[in-house]
Each structure stands twice: as C-alpha cells, then as structure tokens.
Specification:
Length: 400
C-alpha cells in the first residue's frame, strides 16, 4: 500500500499541477508535472523545431508532432472558408467535435435521422433544423467535407446509401479506422477520386469538448487513407485543430484501429475492470468489508495513485510510496507481466484478424442491441464493487 501520509501531502499539489499546467503548449502531462519533491533523474525530451513541427525523441525513437499553435482560429477560418463540414452522427464524438467546430466559427452542419434521439439531442445543443441540422442525405449533399461519425455498425449499414453521394471533390473524414480497414467485413469501399482522412481524438467526445472549453486540447492521431488532391495530410491536421486537438501524432488507419480496439479491450477498459473485479472479489472472499475492498482496489488507485502516474510516470509513483509498497510492487510487476502478456497477444491477434470486428458488427447490428446493452450495464451497476463505490464517492470531500 502507498504511504497515505506522503500521498496526502503530495496530492493537492500534484493534482493541481496536472489539472492546471504552467505551460499550455505541452506534449503530454508527463512533460509538465513538477519533480522537485522527489529525487529522480529528469527525462526531458529533445525538441527540434522545423517549420512549426516538433520532432520529439520518444525513448530513442524520433517522431514528428504537430501542434495547434500553427493553426490559429483566423487561419482555420481562411483555410475552410469555402467548405461546408457535414458532420454525420451525433453521438459522443459528434457532440464534442461538432460543438467545437461551431465555436471555432466554421460552417458546420449536422446530419442525423430526423426526429430520432440524436436529432433531439442536437436541438437541445442549439442546432437548428433547416439551418444547420438536416437529415443525413441532405447534409451530405450540402457538405464538401463529410465527417462520418456514425457508430461503426451504422457506418456499415448506411454505406450503400452514403457512397453514391461522395462525389469527386469532396473529402471523407473518419475518427476511427474501423470501416475502411475492415472493408471486407464492413463493405465500406471508399470512392477512388476523393481524399480520405482520419482524426482520432485520444478520448471520449465529452473529454474533447471539456478540454476545448477549458482552453486546452486533446491529443489526437491523424492519418491519410487516400490523397487525391495532394493536400489530404494538411487538411487532416487543420481539421484536427478545428475539432479541439492540441497535439497531433501521425499514424496509419491500420495502426489506429488496431491500437484502439486493443487498448480499449485491455488496459483502458476491459483489462482494468477485470483486474478491479478480481482484486475486489479476493478481498471480500478473505473477509474484508466492501468499503475496505473498494478503497484498496479502486478509490486509492483512481484518486491518488493514477493521477501521480499520469502526471509524472511510474518511477515517480514508486518513489512516492513507502519502501514496503515499492518493493512489493516492483517484485510483483514481473509476475503480472509474464502472466498477462499471453492474454494481450491473444487480444491483439483477435483484433488484427477481424474477430473483434465481426463480434462488434454482429452484436451492434442486432435490432435489440440497445436493450441487451442496457441489461449488461445494469448488471455492472448492480455489482457489489460499484454499489460500494457509489457510497464511497458520496463521502469524498468535494461532495460534502
């Protein structure tokens, strides 16, 4: 266990630094967190400026990183002055990216099924039917840049109707490489005479929106599937800034979708939930109370330790713990890695071969998928760990 006295002493200072960086223009929170309170070797990335591009040394591998400072609002308005951005779909990403584009002053319209849930959500957010809110077909007909932010399953289902409208001179934009990469399964075969680009924010659409409103920008991946005009990459960078990105990392459609599907099933969501459940259940089976099991499994991790890792790195986290905690954590890291690596290899293979794609398309195309999904969520809500967590969260200082 971490030394709670030391963690409490650090927490308010470190979390404040993470939440409010001294310098806005940073590559990642790891580059901005203060290290003054713990003696660890500094790891400052080498920066080489060239034509507004930062070349960063990531652990010995140099990568070009693009930043929003090169695309101020006035430049965006000039660059897209003749474009209509037709954003199709108003889910999480559609909500965040659409509102950010609107606030940046670009000519953006929303295309969704009329009178559906997304249509009503868009109206609640101030989109006006007939002015900047239309049915999908009408929005595509008006757009020069078609931003397909429908769900992966919906992209596959609607593609036969959408493809004929993607005429020469338009640009097709994705925020996930899923549909074109797995085209044998999705049937999303893009026209050969248009630019096809990707901007994939590394977070939910709600986070994209929140960071933008706070004057910050989310990290995003950019990629080009097809460059007909010779300006596809430049367009992707500009759009990434316009939707709320701060820093942009170049990748490919394939690598984006492989890493995304792999990550969300692994450490980002599926794997971490599985570890939470396993640790919590063992504590309960060994006689610990629900509050103690939750605090030692989730609360201390998410409220004290994970912010320190995000802000400063794992070595800093180890240095901020008691010597007993540090020794045990380092020793058991090897066993967990050796045990879990075969599972992660199996997961990556499942992603790359399309097995995960088939599962997603089949499940999410089921007419009753929302009902089944809600039943799964209800089951998770009713797990003891999360019912105990609700009570623990109510006792946090900010809630009292």
């Amino acid at each position: 266990m971490a030394s709670r006295t030391f963690i409490r002493a650090l927490r308010s200072n470190v979390v404040r630094q993470i939440a409010t960086p001294v310098q806005r223009r940073t590559i990642a929170t790891a580059f901005i967190a203060a290290r003054a309170t713990v003696a660890v070797a500094p790891r400052i990335p080498a920066l080489i400026q060239k034509r507004g591009i930062k070349t960063i040394d990531f652990a010995g591998v140099k990568e070009d990183v693009y930043e929003r400072a090169d695309w101020p609002r006035e430049k965006l308005l000039e660059y897209f002055k003749n474009d209509t951005l037709a954003l199709i779909g108003y889910g999480s990403q559609g909500h965040g990216q659409g509102l950010n584009l609107r606030d940046n002053g670009l000519n953006v319209i929303i295309g969704v099924r009329k009178n559906g849930a997304s249509w009503n959500d868009a109206i609640q957010d101030g989109w006006v039917p007939g002015t900047n809110l239309f049915g999908i077909d009408e929005a595509i007909s008006k757009g020069t840049i078609i931003m397909n932010l429908l769900s992966d399953a919906a992209q596959s289902e609607t593609w036969p109707a959408i493809k004929p409208q993607l005429t020469k001179g338009k640009t097709l934009y994705f925020s996930h490489g899923f549909s074109p990469v797995f085209k044998d399964l999705t049937k999303v075969e893009v026209p050969s005479d248009i630019d096809v680009i990707l901007v994939a924010p590394k977070g939910s659409g709600r986070t994209v929106r929140t960071l933008f409103k706070n004057g910050r920008g989310i990290n995003s991946s950019i990629a080009v599937w097809q460059d007909v005009t010779g300006k596809a990459k430049e367009k992707a960078i500009a759009l990434a800034v316009a939707v709320g990105s701060g820093y942009m990392y170049e990748t490919t459609f394939e690598k984006e979708v492989y890493s995304d599907l792999y990550g969300e099933r692994g450490c980002l969501m599926g794997g971490i939930h599985g570890m939470f459940l396993a640790q919590y259940e063992v504590l309960r089976e060994r006689g610990h109370s629900p509050s103690e099991a939750f605090n030692e499994t989730v609360e201390e991790a998410t409220q004290s330790l994970y912010p320190l890792i995000g802000g400063n790195g794992m070595d800093w986290m180890f240095a901020a713990c008691s010597t007993t905690a540090r020794r045990g954590a380092i020793d058991w890291t090897v066993k967990f890695k050796d045990t879990l690596k075969p599972v992660f290899n199996e997961l990556y293979d499942s992603v790359k071969t399309g097995k995960e794609t088939i599962r997603s398309l089949e499940y999410n195309s089921d007419p009753d998928y929302r009902k089944k999904y809600e039943a799964e969520l209800e089951e998770i809500r009713n797990l003891e760990i999360w019912r105990a967590g609700k009570a623990v969260r109510s006792l946090r200082p900010e809630n009292n």
